[in-house]
Amino acid sequence: MSDRIEIKNLLVRGILGVKAEEREKRQDILVNLELAADLRPAAVSDDLERSVNYRSVTKDVIALVEGSAFHTIETLATEIARAVLVGYPVEAVTVRVEKPGAPRFAESVGVVIARTRADFA
User: Fold this and answer.
1) Is the C-alpha dihedral spanning 31, 15, 77, 120 positive or negative?
2) Cβ atoms within 10 Å of 112's Cβ, excluding its own
3) Which domains are present in the chain?
4) β-strand 69-70 against 3-16: which pairing, if any?
5) Per-residue b/e over 42-64, b at no fewer than 16 CB within 10 Å?
6) Is 99 among the catalytic positions?
């Protein structure tokens, strides 16, 4: 069983969707991450350098979402997973991406994906 770092309800504004109005102005995108990593070295040493710096992960995810213009939530979630797994000492990641208010009568619509390092080798 791996240790986990959770980043919950990261609200970012970006371009996401296929409709013309979705391509014109930024909309709210909600991102949740669960990072599987061995946190024992950091716990024993009390040294952030021996852990996953969740502040850096968060900054990278914000930059990715704000700088992208994907058509599908699936692609955005996959690219977030790729960035985390390639850039950090993480064994696996679960990514939830939601578009609040879409569709009309729902709180949100979204996807949840789980990926490992092997998916991007």
Assistant:
1) negative
2) 12
3) 3-120 (3.30.1130.10)
4) parallel
5) beeeeeeeebbeeeebeebbbeb
6) yes
| Tokens encoding 80 | 């977030």
Q: What is the mean pLDDT of each run of 10 residues along the chain (121 residues)?
A: 92 95 94 97 93 97 97 98 97 97 86 97 87
SS3 83: helix
Residues in the chain: 121
Tell me how far apart the alpha carbons of residues 61 and 23 are, in angstroms, rounded to a whole number: 20
Give the active site residue among 8, 25, 59, 99: 99
Predicted local confidence at residue 79, as pLDDT: 98
Q: Please give the Cα distance from 90 to 2 (Å, whole number).
A: 10
> Residue 49 is encoded by which pair of tokens?
């350098």
Report yes or no: 117 and 93 within 8 Å, Cβ to Cβ.
no
Supply the pLDDT for residue 103: 79
pLDDT of the residue at 1: 59
